[in-house]
């Protein structure tokens, strides 16, 4: 069987799961990492906020192989840069043929400072 994205790149998924709670009742997380691919990584919008702050956000869309375990708590590491998954990943199966498509994962990084 041939991969859906034969010229894609490998990325790292950092899975986060709630491991317990701290002394204040806040969730504590544990992490595991897994390499997935080949994936299609596409740059999205990047913007800067400069009123009362200096902050830059950059969006990416990553298409991972169908069946990959990825969720909204996870992060995607691309070229040593960690992006937070934003929203639920999109799974698609054709109602006509049953064929699957890569899973669309939207992610974002925020850099800078705020007052």
Topology:
Layout: E1 9-21, E2 27-49, E3 54-64, E4 75-78, E5 81-85, E6 103-113
Antiparallel strand pairs: 1-2, 1-4, 2-3, 3-6, 4-5, 5-6
- When the domains are counted, the total is 1
Task: Profile the largest sheet.
Answer: 6 strands, antiparallel, barrel
Structural class: mainly beta
Overall residue-averaged pLDDT value = 91
Task: State the shape.
Answer: globular
CATH architecture: Beta Barrel
In total, the number of strands is 6
- Write the CATH homologous superfamily: Protein of unknown function DUF3599
> How far is the first residue's CA from the last residue's CA?
52 Å
CATH topology: Thrombin, subunit H
**How large is the share of residues in beta strands?**
over 45%
Low-confidence stretches: none
Strand order of the largest sheet: 1-2-3-6-5-4
* Assembly state: single chain
Estimated radius of gyration: 17 Å
Number of helices: 0
Q: What is the ordering of alpha helices and beta strands?
A: EEEEEE
Helicity, as a percent range:
under 10%
| Name of the top-level CATH class | Mainly Beta
């Amino acid at each position: 069987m041939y991969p859906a994205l034969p010229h894609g790149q490998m990325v790292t998924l950092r899975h986060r799961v709630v491991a317990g709670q701290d002394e204040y009742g806040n969730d504590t997380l544990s992490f595991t990492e897994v390499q997935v691919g080949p994936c299609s990584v596409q740059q999205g919008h990047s913007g800067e906020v400069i009123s009362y702050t200096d902050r830059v956000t950059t969006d990416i869309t990553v298409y991972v192989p169908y069946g990959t375990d990825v969720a909204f708590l996870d992060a995607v590491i691309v070229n040593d840069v960690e992006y937070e998954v934003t929203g639920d990943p999109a799974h698609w199966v054709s109602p006509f043929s049953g064929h699957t498509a890569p899973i669309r994962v939207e992610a974002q990084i925020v850099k800078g400072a705020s007052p």
